[in-house]
Write a structure and sequence with these properties.
With 381 residues, the chain is an alpha+beta fold. It is built from seven helices and 21 strands. The strands form seven sheets. Strands 17-18-19-20-21 form a five-stranded mixed beta barrel. Strands 9-12-11-10 form a four-stranded antiparallel β-sheet, covered by helices on one side. Strands 4-1-7 form a three-stranded mixed β-sheet. It is rod-shaped and about 110 Å long.
Length: 381
């Protein structure tokens, strides 16, 4: 019973290997120049299902290199092509080389014809326990992936320059964990990006490449890169004292955070005066500025009352300061009991609009009678 049981287990193990499918990468192959390289050109494929085997052999991997040139194809790239087509990688065993070198020949002669592999299956498969498994590619942890993406951002900031003068941008990278583990040991000066036009807020696929320190082979990885303009805020160009009216030459743009409540429009700062001393380069916030008052407390103000066909002017003293279109309190010069509320319309000028066409010019005034004490009695001797 024991020999029979051992034989059944060995037969079951061998059938499982066949059903799973085996892809064995070659070391070097030669393909016709200008052709499309398929999986059957670079690997020997064995599968229990002939239709599935033919489908795997027909999988396109990319264009062949130019005549007389060579192109490396890695084990990872083959796995990515299979995964993109929806193949179950868990059901496929990979053997052979981790990289195959593809050479384009001037004539269409292939070193190992595909048909020979199709018609000549291997007589006996070795048990899986006797086949040395390919080393698994280590994936990076979340911390290592962020470090690799930060490394790529530093390279992008050195290589790519914004097309708009004076505009600062931030780079964002998305990298696969497997590629992050490969890139992390590299130094910034060893990484290079393929040239591409980057657009704002649009993820662009780029290729980063470097030379392997052991084999001097060119390694590549795909990176999704997005650029975002940094928010800009207004700031004073020079040290500015309190009460200084700002002009366009006194302002400049500085980088800020997204949640910064600084001023973003020139109209919010030009023509206003500072409410306190500001240092050079300090970003402006609304509390730093105030509108320039056209009248101040105790200024002599001309008040104009207008109605159709009539315009009355009278001088008052300002009880409060105000800028354009502000409402201020005024008191008549010759009568302290007459107080009004008027709208600032110019430098030391205010206006009262009479809404009643039949009223007298004085009826449009809002008058506040101040409490007055009885006039002092005069003693007559």
């Amino acid at each position: 019973m024991k020999p029979s049981l051992f034989f059944l287990l060995a037969l079951l193990l061998a059938s499982t290997v066949v059903d799973a499918g085996v892809i064995e990468l070659r070391d070097r192959v030669s393909v016709p120049a200008g052709s499309v390289v398929r999986l059957g050109d670079v690997a020997a494929i064995h599968h229990a299902d002939d239709r599935q085997a033919a489908s795997l052999r027909d999988l396109p991997l990319g264009p062949a290199p130019a005549a007389g040139r060579s192109l490396p194809l890695s084990y990872d790239e083959v796995r990515q092509k299979l995964q993109a087509r929806g193949e179950n990688l868990a059901a496929i065993e990979f053997r052979g080389q981790r990289q195959v070198m593809i050479t384009a020949a001037a004539t269409k002669n292939i070193v190992e014809p595909v048909k020979a592999d199709v018609m000549k299956p291997e007589p006996v498969f070795k048990p899986m326990r006797e086949v040395a498994p390919l080393p698994r590619v280590k994936s990076a942890t979340d911390v290592e992936q962020r470090r690799a993406e930060t490394l790529l951002v530093s390279v992008l900031e050195r290589v790519f320059k914004p097309t708009e003068t004076g505009t600062s941008v931030d780079f964002e990278c998305e990298l696969a964990p497997v590629d992050a583990a490969r890139i992390l040991p590299c130094r910034p000066e060893e990484l290079h990006f393929s040239s591409a036009a980057l657009r704002s807020d649009v993820a662009t696929p780029l290729t980063v490449w470097w030379l392997d320190s052991k084999s001097d082979e060119r390694m590549t990885a795909k990176v999704m890169v997005t650029i975002k303009p940094r928010p800009q805020r207004l700031a004073v160009r020079y040290a500015t004292p309190k009460g200084f009216p700002l002009r366009p030459d006194d302002l400049m743009w500085v980088d800020a955070d997204d949640n910064d409540d600084g001023l973003q429009h020139l109209g919010d700062a030009i023509g206003k005066e500072t409410t306190h001393n500001l240092r050079a380069g300090q970003p402006l916030v609304p509390n730093d500025l105030a509108r320039v008052p056209l009248m101040r407390t105790n200024d002599i103000v001309t008040v104009v009352v207008r109605r159709p066909g009539i315009s009355v002017r009278r001088e008052f003293k300002a009880l409060s300061a105000g800028a354009m279109n502000d409402t201020v309190s005024l008191v008549a010069l010759n009568d302290p009991r007459l107080r009004i509320q008027a709208t600032v319309t110019g430098y030391r000028e205010a206006t009262l609009a009479d809404l009643s066409p039949d009223a007298t010019p004085a009826s449009g005034l809002r008058v506040e009678e101040a409490e007055s004490s009885a006039p002092p009695r005069r003693s007559v001797r």
